[in-house]
Specification:
It is built from 15 helices and 13 strands. With about 400 residues, the protein is an alpha+beta fold. It is globular, with a radius of gyration of 21 Å.
Amino acid sequence: MTTAKTADPIAVPAVDRSCPFSPPTAYQQALRHAAITRVRLWDGSESWMATRHEDVCAILADPRFSSDTRRPGFPFLNPARRAVADGNRSFINLDGPEHTRLRHLVLPDFKRRNVDALRPEIRRTAEELVDTMTREGTAADLMARFALPLPSRVICLLLGIPYQDRDYFQRRSRVLMHNDADPAQARQASDDLDRYLTGLVRDGRAAPDGIVSRLSAQDGVTPGQIAATGRLLLINGHESTSHMIALSVLVLLRNPGQLVRLRAEPALAATAVDELLRYLTILHQGLGRVATEDATVDRHVIRAGEGVICMLSTANRDEAAFPAAADVDLTRDARHHVAFGFGAHRCLGQLLAEAELAAALETLLRRLPRLRLAVPESDVPFRYDTQTYGVHALPVRWD
């Protein structure tokens, strides 16, 4: 076992990559040469980074590694995230009974039975968005006209908040997701969303059957907890899924053989969604944890108070878990991917995101058989300066 630090820690977040869909090159090199390695953060502090699938799963399932952002040594990836962590914290930044209690208040909304009940509405929304696009022309920005509105409308329905407020919450979400956001502006955006969500309840604008209203009726749930939970679900419910939809379309257009097979074999939808989630893993910056006591991972001793970043993107490109991991294979059994995390803090919105992605792809491939990029792929504006990567726009044609 070793506790030695490498001479030249990797600076994170890294940006350079050999392929627009691949994790940064420095992370892939760490996966090949040193499963557990040291990294240097923006403030000069150091943390560990886990890159292998086995190690990432072990850490995320181990209660000795805390999600609590208040603990000294927690690895914040930029100053804005540290500033926001001082405000109302959602249950993903809590541990133990408090995490479990708050998570379980909203868990039923994201279980299979409820998601299955939402599928007709998700499909209707996808059809309506394509109807509008095709009625207005033969080209569009698929990100703005389809990929972003679809999950935004669904999460607004679930939360019980007005979709017409989307410009307000989408602008503030973008600030909170940006790596280089000014800390004061990020804190302001977070506070704005908290006031917005609690104000919906106070003013009677939240739908009574939505999550926000139902949380406000629960005993022992504070306004801060309502706001933090609503903010978490609102941001992740539209930001992450929208970019997964756009990137998945781009990957399929780049791999026409896979696209043709998926269009011809709709039964492949479930495995295709898992494979696209694995291949893309849009959270390229990883999940932070901090050790609450000494723990050994891959013969390395991580001391109490030391941070560790679990790199989901490299875990999903680990050849030991996914042979030929750099290839897209829609027939691959990729159910053990970690795109949604692992363990007690695994994303509770997984089933909903999968349903939205499946409906989006099925609708687009069926309704727009001539769908293609309207610009060279090199001109697609990728988004690497945020917590989840994606595209700023996706110009397409279907004439």
